[in-house]
Each structure stands twice: as structure tokens, then as C-alpha cells.
Amino acid sequence: MLERRNARTIMIVAVAMALTMVVVLAAIMPYLEASRSSYRRSMGHITNAVIIDSSVTANVALLGSSPDTQFMSECLDSLALKVDMVTDTDGLDQFSGIVCIDCTGLTNETLMGYIDPLRALMLTGTPLIFVNDTMGALAQVIYGQDVSWVGMVSTDRTPIAVRALKHDPQGGWSGSFDLGGRASDRAQLANAISHAYNWSAERIANVNVSETVTTNARTYQAFSYAYYSGDAFEPYGRFTIFNSFIRTIWNNPYSLDMWYVHYRVESAPGYGVYGNDRRTASMDIVSTFGEGANLVRHGPGTAYGVGDAGIHLSPFSDDRFGRWSYGVQDVTVMDHSDSSKEMLRMDHALDLSKVVSRSPYTVEPGAGILVEKGMGISFHDTYDVEWKTPSFFAWESDLVSTEVNGRVR
């Protein structure tokens, strides 16, 4: 009797241990599966398109007199054709190249002396790079000018180390670029300065407008905005924004223009860039347009994880700017847009058990905005990226929320 009872006890214990092992294996399976991935260290095609090694070398005038100015010069020496360190704006009107401004420790008096010369350089097409711009020097340079500019709202969670701006009088290469990271972190600052230089060098010429002219309309890219987080969110991941603003001037009797916004937001989770197990769980975009804007088209619609999502903003089949698609395999897209509020909202939920959550993924929704002829558009965007880490019986979540304001003319 005692032997039978002992055997039964041993069997119960064995079954309990087996069940425990099953539960434990189920809990740690994401870790085991993660270690076998071939996607590690992948940055993503949008990031690579924005963060490039420029084939153009240019002269740089480095304006500043802080203890950081020498460090910035050393960052640029290996990239630029020549770096001239200057302490005032005298003679910059004759300079040809990129102007980099060290804003560290600027006084109001010094800043006021910079504004007019830098504004004149901007209006003639000189790329400007602002480092550690805590006083809003770039905003003051563009204030009151008929130029486009888009910028991230800087917070402690999403600090902006470097900003770059290029106004092209001919409209071909106008754009702005924000780089995340802390200026106090020398490695992050050096990377941001390098990326800003490459971006500016590629846009140093004033080029002809890339456009399509048909019997119905003239369409051209008026502006682009880019943001790269760098390592501001290590170890969770990196993300990149690269939005194009397309203007269509219709041949119609109604005095109306159409603006297309082609959003590109890419998440590169920690799984791929830092070698940990963080994955992209969701990517959401909310864009609200200002007075005078009418959100008349948007896409994609709601889609449930199969194939491609198509965006058709243009009513004309020959308009190559207003039509595109992107893959949504293993991604659920929920369209919560509200045209009565001039609000685009697209939520993307990624399947955490699939490759898409572990590798770089780009969402590309679009909006079509109708305005009076000659008007630009103003907007306020919010971008939410959620990364999750597998843990025992649960997923640990980290959410980054980023705001962008702008007006494109």
C-alpha cells in the first residue's frame, strides 16, 4: 500500500514538473527563437536612404566660440573639403558651402547679431546646421519668411542634438532634418553632426524642380522632412521619419490646389540594432491639419495583415506622386481618420510572433489635402512607436511618443 502511494506521488510530481517545463519553455521560447535570427544589425531602407554617406564634399564655415566648437571642427574635418572656424558673421555673405552654427552658450545679444546674416544665407540656398540649439536660433532665422519648415517638438525624452535646414529658391531640394540624441554624449553628437553634414552636402546645389506636368495638373515635391532618433532611445530601438510634401496645381476653374503627404515612419527595434529581444509592437500616426485645409483623401483603409496596402490620393491615373503601396503582411492596419476634424489617424499593430516585429518595418500612409490656390498647409503630428520585450508570462512595454509641428508653403 505504501509502495503504491509512493508511486502515485512520484507520478504526480513528474507530471507537475513536466507541466512546469512546458510553461517555462513557452515563456522563454521567444528568447530562444530570437537568438537564431538573421535580421540582427539591420537598419532599414528608409534609415539608409536618409542617413547616407554623401558623395559630395563641401566647405564648411563653423560659427562659434564655445568650448564645444573645437570638438565640432574635429567631427567635420574628416568629412568636409575644408573647415573654417569663425567667431562672427563678417564675410559669410561671400562664403560658398555649408554653415554650421554652434549655439552652445549663445547670449541674446550675440544671437540677434547672427539672425540677419544667417537669414540672407538661407534665402540664397545655403544649408544651415544648428548644433545644441536650445535658444531657438533656427526658428528666429525663418521667422516671418515665406519658407517651409518642419520641426520636432523637443522634450527630455526626445532631445534634439542637431537641426539642419535647406531652403532651395527653385524648390528642388528644400527640406529640414532633426537628429535626436544628447549633445552631452560626445558619440551621439559626433554621429548627429556627421549625418547633418551628409544630408546638407547632398542638397548644397539649387536644383531644378522634380515635377510631372500633365494635361490635368503640375505636380512637384515641394519639401521633405526627416528625423532620425539615433541612439536617443537605446536599448529599445531607433526610428526614422521621412515625409514628403507634394504639391499639385490643378488646371481647374475652382482655384484649388491639392497637397499630398507621403508619410514614411520606420522602426528598427532593439532586436536588430542592439542585439536584445525588443520588438516593434505598434506604430501609430495622428496628423491634424490647420485652418483652410480640407482632408479629402487618405489611405490605406483598414487592412488585416495580408499583402499590400494601397494608397490612391490622386483622381488622375497618370499622377505618379499620388499613388503608392506598402506591405502589411502580419500587420493589422486600423483607419481611425476623421475628415470632419481634418484628422488622419492610422494605427499599425505588428504580430509579435512574426519576423515583421523583429526586423525594420516602414509604414507609409498618405493624406490628400485640398486648399485654396497658392495656400500651404499647417499641421500637428504625433508619432507613437511601442516596443515590447518578451518576459515570463507577459510582454514588457516601452512607448515613445513624438510630436512634430510645421507649415509647408
Q: How would you portray this structure in words?
A:
The protein has 409 residues and is of the alpha+beta class. The protein has helices spanning 2-34, 45-50, 69-77, 108-123, 137-142, 186-202, 270-273; strands at 59-63, 82-86, 98-102, 128-131, 149-152, 160-166, 175-180, 211-213, 217-228, 237-250, 256-262, 265-269, 279-289, 294-299, 303-304, 308-312, 323-327, 331-335, 343-350, 361-363, 366-372, 377-391, 394-408. 22% of the residues lie in helices and 39% in strands.
Draw up the topology in text.
Elements: H1 2-34, H2 45-50, E1 59-63, H3 69-77, E2 82-86, E3 98-102, H4 108-123, E4 128-131, H5 137-142, E5 149-152, E6 160-166, E7 175-180, H6 186-202, E8 211-213, E9 217-228, E10 237-250, E11 256-262, E12 265-269, H7 270-273, E13 279-289, E14 294-299, E15 303-304, E16 308-312, E17 323-327, E18 331-335, E19 343-350, E20 361-363, E21 366-372, E22 377-391, E23 394-408
Parallel strand pairs: 1-2, 1-3, 3-4, 7-9
Antiparallel strand pairs: 4-6, 5-23, 6-7, 8-9, 9-10, 10-11, 10-12, 11-21, 12-20, 13-19, 13-22, 14-21, 15-18, 16-17, 18-19, 22-23
Identify low-pLDDT runs: 1-5, 12-41
Largest sheet: 14 strands, mixed
Order of helices and strands: HHEHEEHEHEEEHEEEEEHEEEEEEEEEEE
Shape: globular
Total helix count?
7
Number of strands: 23
Which terms summarize this structure?
409 residues; seven-stranded antiparallel β-sheet; 22% helix; 39% strand; globular; disordered N terminus
Summarize the structure in short.
The chain is an alpha+beta fold and 409 residues long. 22% of the residues lie in helices and 39% in strands. The protein has 7 helices and 23 strands.
